[in-house]
Amino acid sequence: MSKFSINSLLPFWASRIQPYPAGKPIEEVERELGHSAIKLASNENPLGPSPRALEAIRMSLDRVHLYPDSGGYELRRKLAEHLQLEMSQIILGAGSTELIELAAKTFLSGGDQGITSQSSFLIYRLAIQEAGAGLTLAPLEGMNVDLTAIRQAITPRTKLVFLANPNNPTGTSFTAAKFDAFLDAIPAHVLVVLDEAYYHYAAPGYSRSLDLVRAGRNVLVLRTFSKVYGLAGLRLGYGCGHPELIESLNRVRAPFNTSRPAQTAALAALEDREYVERSVELNFTEMRFVTEELTFLGIRFTPSNANFLLIDTARDCEQDFLRLLREGVIVRPMKVYGFPTSLRVTIGTHADNESFLAAMRRIARAPASANT
Description:
It is built from 13 helices and 13 strands. The N and C termini lie far apart (51 Å). α3 packs parallel to α10 and α11 (273-297) packs parallel to α13. It is globular and about 55 Å long. It folds into two domains: 10-48 and 274-364, Alpha-Beta Complex (Aspartate Aminotransferase, domain 1); 51-271, Type I PLP-dependent aspartate aminotransferase-like (Major domain) (Aspartate Aminotransferase, domain 2). With 372 residues, it is an alpha/beta fold.
């Protein structure tokens, strides 16, 4: 009998995929250090979840032996009311990540092409590759997503374009007018997946994406409960698009893909507008504090419309990541995104930000080649 070989089962594209490098869990870091740490690596809300959401989760626990509503009727109804859409224009996912992969799985196959920005959320390129489609990466224009370059990369094989606005990890955004012009210039058969995970943190009026959904345009808008709503651990996001688009995604979507506690918590979080406003105000105030301090220290950064900063230390980012880790501060090195001297740092509470800045002052004094 011949020896079993997993490689004989893999399609050619699967062996070339590099798994997504998730951030280092805070529990692991604290075990290694033997003391507490702060996590500024994954753009989570430093205030935690809404108190209303926490109470809703507690109230739902006695029913976790029952499967959830697979279509999330009550949450979609509330979202439709909140966003002024129809329920048929909304789909739920296990974070916006599942919806990114679901779009690729639904619309891409071998011989097709997907496009995204060279320095954007890695899940976009992974989703395209996982579908066996060709991947095209468009370069940035400075630190901004280059919509012109993406438009010029479209071919007859192109079916999907993934865009983040604001972009992760640069924190930059493009205007509604620029996106309208982009959408008008591309073929109607190309679906644009517009990821607005950081929508709440950006300047008011930067996006008119839901107007495009209402108009039936070729766009799928993604948002999430993982960021400003503070529910990252429950994995819940949603997509908005033309009813026929949503119906197509639902044919491929796994049943019961969002949990009962997640749906219940999201319903409560949507009602807690004071919490959302407080979260946005904290981010605005602390972003100003951190950027002023970094400027004083002479450390370069990209101005951000999100809840994180891309910081260029002009040194190897992996070494600075390890130095900060030993200080009890978890950030994300950005070499995999094409920024070998940059770190992405979430804006935290004032105490967290002071700890990060103090650690930055200490490591700035360390020799650039030091590994310990």
